[in-house]
Amino acid sequence: MRAALPLLVGAAVLAASTGARAQQQPGSLGNYYDLPDYGYFPAAPTAPAQSSPPATSPTAPGSPTASATSMPIGGSANASASPSTSSASAAPAPTYGGSSVATSTFTYPKGDMAGAKADAKAVGTAQRQGSAQIATGTDLTATVPGYTGATLPQEAYADDPDALVANGAASASTSDAYRTITSPMRPVVTLDRSVVARGTAIEADPHAYTSGVALAGGTGSCTPLPPGSAGTGYYEATCNVGTQVSQGTQSCPITLTHQLTEAHRYRCTRLHARGRVCLQGTATNCTEPDFVDEIVATGCASFEESGICAIDEISSVMIRAGSLRVAATYYETAEASCSAEVAPAIRGGAGTTNHPIVSEYLGLQKVYQGSTRDESQCEALGSDSSCASPVETCTSSDPVTRVIDGMTITQPCWAWTRTYQCTRFNQASDCSTLEGNASCTFQSETCLDDPPSGACQVRERTYKCPIPGGAPTQVPEYICGGDVYCINGECEPIVREASTEFKDALVGLHTLGQANAEFDEATLTLFSGTRETCHKKLFGLSNCCSGKGVPLLTPFLCNSSERQLDTKDDAGLCHKVGSYCSDKVLGICVTQKTAFCCFASKLTRILQEQGRPQLGLAWASPKNEQCRGFTIDQFARLDLSRMDFSEVYAEFVDAAKLPDEIETAQQIQQRIEDYYRLHGPN
Questions:
Q1: pTM of the predicted model, to two decimals?
Q2: How far apart are CA 500 and CA 497, in angstroms?
């Protein structure tokens, strides 16, 4: 009611001044503001003009013509007053601050906007000139905030209003406000039907809620308002868009390639003297030792000297032990592989019966030249800079001896697998579900690059979504007689709710008790919290930060502290500080952590969230916030009356029945009606 009094006084002053002006200026102002006078507005049908209109004195707009006492809302005023006449003959020209304006009717061809603008400019210029001549004894610089009496440069727009368009377009490119409004990523407020349900219901049938309420504010019955959207629970859902880093292993096979050729094969033997001998001295005192290595007889000389044969030693057997002066004799067998035929030859003797010197041709045979590793299938991975740390594993080692094209070949390993750790980059987004959900609204976007450099690689988008299955909690609200005030045909209701003074007192008492319980003698602080974090793999299934009111989708991938954090957050004990990158691969974020400050109670969390802005204490970055409490001086400077504790009211008064003004008034009224029904009015 206190807020409505100035409006009522203002309306009275306006009505009085209008009436006085109407007495001084009998001419009607309708010619300037009646929209049908202009050809480009749809004109309402008019009655034929009378040839000799009566010379009646017109009534100025706004003059009171009927009493408003007890007039129902939506009703019509008493029409007994004489209607105003806008076409009185010989009416004097109206004046504005001492300046006269022509009273001719302004009628323009359809679409003549230029003419309408010119006329409006003329009227506005006369009005401004007249207003400038009004004398006043009030010191405007002292009574009007921001008024200095100086001529403002914006007054030029009154003479050239079209300049607003050009100047506005020129300033748009450098205006931060314009860029913010036109940014496609700006937060957009979208109202669904549930938000405007109450207003829509009242608009459809206003008399159902205001019937019987008089303009004078007389007391009437209380009508319950239709349900609104208060109490709907929301949670913050996040998604990521940008560069996705995928790490994995890629393998390639390595095999053996065997070199087999055809060659002329020969077998040969030789007697070979080799060993240590003493040329002078004794076995125990040799003064001139020597090492003997000579061929006594051989059948391999022609192959060794040909230059086209390869000699493979097969065996070596000692046939005579050496002595002090003579070296030991060995009988050796060898095979030769020659690219062309070579004539066998024996040198130095035929040997002995048991150890003959031979040199014989075995024929044209396949010869094993060796084996090489074929790594051609690993060339692509080996040259890829995003693949590193190769590891080889033998995949075929049994048996070690195998027959290849008739040749017996022995290798410790016949095949390998080489495995690389590879990192791939591609553009990805997991925001499609949230973007397609009409119930979710975009809130903000954060770059997770740490430190940021150039274009952002990975961004986190935050959406506000209703908690699934969360039914709104409705608090009954009423509109009552005496709570509707109408001024100049516009009515505003005062919605009455139950008193919260008792609840606020309980919150204050609990705050003092909580301060005593949470006082830290070591740091001399109050209401400290603990820093807790949860992690989320970007573009992956592992998400241990589900959000308040939403269960963890992958609890088996979360550690025990993250599961406890989720429980605390659902209970309303934690404040979300923000997210940051906790793990990077080649400079690209792959894992993010969300930091929370968790407190001992909801009350402590509310004091921190709403108290910090009062003290000018901002939360630190998500990577560094330590959830410190208030000092005693800071707590003393908090204004609890400016805080909203409605979230914790129910916890403090769970067992108490609070006074309800509406319910109490209805009970009293019902008892009075019951009494008179039983005992009569006397």
A1: 0.46
A2: 9
